[in-house]
């Protein structure tokens, strides 16, 4: 998929199939002669497929619909018109954001269903209006929304700039603004974009099935509030891989209704780490299962592998694996918190809780800046159970004392070498 999107990008710029192949080969990295030949054949196939796709596809460029691309005048209407025409096309369609130009956008919704497949090719920059008054007073939660589009591919190597500084100054945790939001989109592919300075959440996947997200670079200052990297909720069969996320909040937030999520080869930091939750806020029911997180580097994050649930909620978070994680100066490397409270008022202790079970923490190594490297803070009425700790080695940064662990109401087991020893003295 990445090769095809990259090939399409070069062909859209007027390059030949041979030029596209050369560009893709240079982008693919090294390897031996056999690997090079194999890669050459694979990438040539991608370029030929892209050429065929371009021949058969209808092209809808923003510039053809009156876009100025100067980053100052509003191009929202041009994007909406290009999308509308592409969505009505009976041929596979490409909506093109041309390279080397900046297109200023206010709130916009790109809706389906569409008559054929669409590739949204972002080669230039989409930038949010810096004026908050451009947003609908009744709904400031979204910037670019894609809704009800099946078989959509988004890529191109361009940039989506949320222009979030003005939003961070007026941050409200309970009125989150989402930069690029996908709703009820099945068989979705998002590959090769740069996301910077979102108003709050950078990429949100909601009520979707069959999603692949890869090769995203997501960046915002570590002090920017609520700028989660990738947010997944009420979605199934989602894959996230090969992304670099540096933000002021969760690198990934995994919330209610997420099932069968695979996350691999992620680099995270600064930020709040990888979080399942929060779940069960407002006495709600939450259900999360089948979460597999593998091969992650975390640098200077507030948390590493985290599950957080509010008191008073119900439901479950189960069948979860965090494995092959490297921690570098992480404050809370391993943490389950069933008493999570992020409220201006103290949270009242309640009897019910989201049940946490069958969680594996495996091959997690590195350094922590806090003494409690492992925290299992579980509910008295609904203890965590089937918590497995395997091959853990977490030490204090600079060797300043030994790391420790704390447990409350957790039923755990260990295998291999586990440092620090879980819950000594509890």
Model description:
Its EC number is 3.2.1.15. This is endo-polygalacturonase. It is found in: Secreted, Cell wall. Belongs to the glycosyl hydrolase 28 family. With about 425 residues, the chain is of the alpha/beta class. Among the domains are: about 1-55, no CATH class; about 250-425, 3 Solenoid (Pectate Lyase C-like). Helix content is about 15%, strand content about 50%. The chain contains 5 helices and 28 strands. The longest helix has 24 residues, at about 35-55. Residues about 10-20 and about 25-30 have low confidence and may be disordered.
Determine the mean pLDDT.
Answer: 87
Strand count: 28
Q: Which bin fits the share of residues in helices?
A: 10-25%
Largest sheet: 17 strands, parallel
Give the DSSP E fraction (strand runs of 2 or more residues).
over 45%
Estimate the global geometry from the Cα principal axes.
elongated
Unreliable segments of 5+ consecutive residues: 9-21, 23-30
CATH topology of the domain at 250-426: Pectate Lyase C-like
- Our Rg estimate from Cα atoms comes to 23 Å
Counted by DSSP, the helix tally is: 5
CATH class of the domain at 250-426, named: Mainly Beta
Task: Determine the CATH superfamily of the domain at 250-426.
Answer: Single-stranded right-handed beta-helix, Pectin lyase-like
Structural class comes to alpha/beta
CATH architecture group name of the domain at 250-426: 3 Solenoid
Ends: how far apart? 50 Å
How are the secondary structure elements laid out?
Elements: H1 2-12, H2 17-27, H3 33-56, E1 58-61, E2 70-74, H4 76-88, E3 93-97, E4 102-105, E5 108-111, E6 118-122, E7 125-128, E8 142-147, E9 153-155, E10 159-161, H5 165-169, E11 178-183, E12 186-196, E13 201-206, E14 209-219, E15 230-233, E16 236-246, E17 252-254, E18 259-268, E19 274-279, E20 285-299, E21 303-310, E22 314-330, E23 332-340, E24 355-368, E25 372-377, E26 384-396, E27 404-408, E28 410-419
Parallel strand pairs: 1-3, 2-4, 3-6, 4-7, 5-8, 6-9, 7-10, 8-11, 9-12, 10-12, 11-13, 12-14, 13-15, 14-16, 15-17, 16-18, 17-19, 18-20, 19-21, 20-22, 21-23, 22-24, 23-25, 24-26, 25-27, 26-28
Helix pairs in contact: 1-2, 1-3, 2-3
């Amino acid at each position: 998929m990445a090769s095809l999107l990259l090939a399409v990008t070069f062909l859209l710029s007027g390059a030949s199939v041979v030029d596209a192949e050369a560009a893709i080969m240079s982008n693919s990295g090294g390897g031996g002669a056999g690997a090079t030949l194999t890669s050459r054949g694979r990438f040539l196939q991608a370029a030929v497929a892209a050429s065929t796709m371009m021949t058969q596809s209808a092209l809808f460029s923003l510039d053809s619909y009156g876009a100025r691309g100067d980053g100052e005048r509003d191009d929202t209407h041009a994007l909406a018109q290009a999308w509308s025409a592409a969505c009505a096309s009976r041929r596979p369609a490409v909506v093109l954001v041309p390279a080397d130009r900046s297109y200023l956008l206010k709130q916009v919704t790109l809706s389906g269903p569409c008559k054929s497949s669409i590739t949204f090719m972002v080669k230039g920059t989409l930038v949010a209006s810096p004026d908050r008054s451009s947003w609908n007073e009744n709904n400031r939660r979204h910037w670019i929304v894609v809704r009800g589009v099946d078989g959509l591919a988004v890529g191109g190597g361009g940039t989506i700039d949320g222009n979030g500084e003005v939003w961070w100054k007026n941050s409200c945790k309970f009125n989150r603004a989402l930069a690029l939001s996908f709703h009820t989109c099945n068989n979705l592919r998002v590959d090769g974009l740069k996301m910077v300075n979102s108003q709050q959440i950078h990429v949100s996947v909601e009520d979707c099935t069959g999603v692949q997200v890869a090769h995203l670079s997501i960046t915002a200052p570590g002090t920017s509030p609520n700028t989660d990297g990738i947010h997944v909720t009420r979605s199934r069969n989602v894959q996230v891989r090969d992304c670099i996320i540096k933000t002021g909040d969760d690198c990934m937030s995994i919330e209610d209704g997420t099932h069968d999520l695979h996350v691999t080869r992620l680099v995270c930091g600064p930020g709040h780490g990888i979080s399942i939750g929060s779940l069960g806020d407002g006495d709600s029911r939450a259900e999360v299962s089948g979460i597999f997180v593998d091969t992650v580097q975390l640098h200077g994050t507030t948390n590493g592998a985290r599950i957080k649930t509010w008191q008073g909620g119900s439901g479950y978070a189960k069948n979860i694996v965090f494995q092959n994680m490297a921690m570098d100066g992480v404050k809370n490397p391993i943490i389950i918190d069933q008493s999570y409270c992020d409220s201006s008022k103290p949270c009242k202790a309640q009897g019910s809780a989201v049940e946490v079970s069958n969680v594996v923490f495996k091959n997690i190594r590195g350094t922590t800046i806090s003494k409690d490297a492992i925290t299992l803070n579980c509910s008295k009425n609904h203890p965590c159970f089937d918590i497995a700790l395997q091959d853990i080695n977490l030490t204090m940064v600079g060797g300043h004392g030994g790391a420790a662990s704390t447990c409350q109401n957790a039923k755990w087991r260990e295998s291999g070498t586990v440092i620090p020893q879980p819950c000594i003295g509890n």
